[in-house]
Specification:
alpha+beta, N-terminal domain of MutM-like DNA repair proteins, Helicase, Ruva Protein, domain 3, 4-stranded antiparallel β-sheet, 7 helices
Length: 271
């Protein structure tokens, strides 16, 4: 989510008010096939606002419609000059009224491009199911506590459930649990209200720090200017297996939870 927020903030400065004159699609399916009507539904419309909902980027168009974008595991979106070289694996090019182009690249094609003509952004099906956003004023200790009280799953799994917390990914769940001193395999019902408060503050902290550092770049992520993020230089546990904890010097360990790796300090994070 911090990576998508970084892109959204840059796009707000670069493309709001511009009109989409032409759309070019690769014709290849993404997570699901791009609708044959995609170009018809966006061409000739102006970009009114840029929204982020969880890990989704949303272009609000005028006349009213929405263009929904999800970058999947490897997608990139950039703004470039019309006529400049188009990179391999470019799946969509939106030609804008000022001779620039919004380009979506995705070599794994796990992303999403879709349009919806609905009255409100919340009526978009993919967004209706999302939980609360960590940057929302409504995200607080009481909200997280209500979810924890009724769950017997591991806390890391709850944090990654997009229907409970929208946009929190594996990196930031690991980092938040470390900051809060909570083992990723702790069962939710064992957490105290005080620990929940610490976790709430930790989630806010790691997300805001990551946005300030323009996202985390290990291999794929670059913002819409083609710049890598810097947050990987500030991570405390993620992908630091075997290296010393920055607090206590104990070796960072890794466990598998579902199909993901969790990184933690066995001394600082109690189970």
């Amino acid at each position: 989510m911090p990576e998508i927020e970084t892109i959204a903030r840059k796009l707000r400065k670069a493309i709001i008010g511009k009109r989409i004159q032409k759309v070019h699609l690769s014709g290849l399916p993404l997570r699901k096939p791009v609708a044959a009507t995609f170009a018809i539904q966006v061409e000739g419309r102006s970009i009114r606002r840029i929204h982020r909902r969880g890990k989704y980027l949303v272009l609000e168009l005028e006349p009213l419609s929405y263009c929904l974008i999800h970058l999947g595991m490897s997608g990139r979106i950039v703004v470039d000059r019309s006529g400049s070289q188009v990179e391999k694996h470019t799946q969509a090019v939106l030609c804008l009224s000022d001779a620039t182009e919004l380009r979506y690249m995705d070599h794994r094609r796990f992303g999403l491009l879709a349009t919806y003509e609905v009255r409100r952004i919340g009526q978009i099906p993919e967004l209706e199911r999302l939980g609360i956003d960590p940057l929302s004023a409504r995200f607080g200790q009481d909200r997280l506590w209500s979810e924890i009280l009724k769950s017997r799953q591991e806390i890391k799994s709850l944090l990654l459930d997009q229907q409970k917390i929208a946009g929190l990914g594996n990196i930031y769940a690991c980092e938040a649990l470390y900051r809060a001193g909570i083992h990723p395999a702790r069962r939710c019902y064992t957490l105290t209200r005080d620990e929940t408060g610490k976790l709430t503050n930790a989630i806010r902290k790691v997300v805001r720090d990551a946005i300030r550092h323009r996202g985390t770049s290990f291999s794929d992520f670059m913002d819409s200017d083609g710049q890598a993020g810097e947050n990987q230089n500030y991570l405390k546990v993620f992908q630091r297996e075997g290296r010393k904890c920055r607090r206590c010097k104990t070796g960072i360990q890794r466990i598998r939870q579902g199909n993901r790796s969790s990184f933690y300090c066995p001394h600082c994070q109690t189970k």
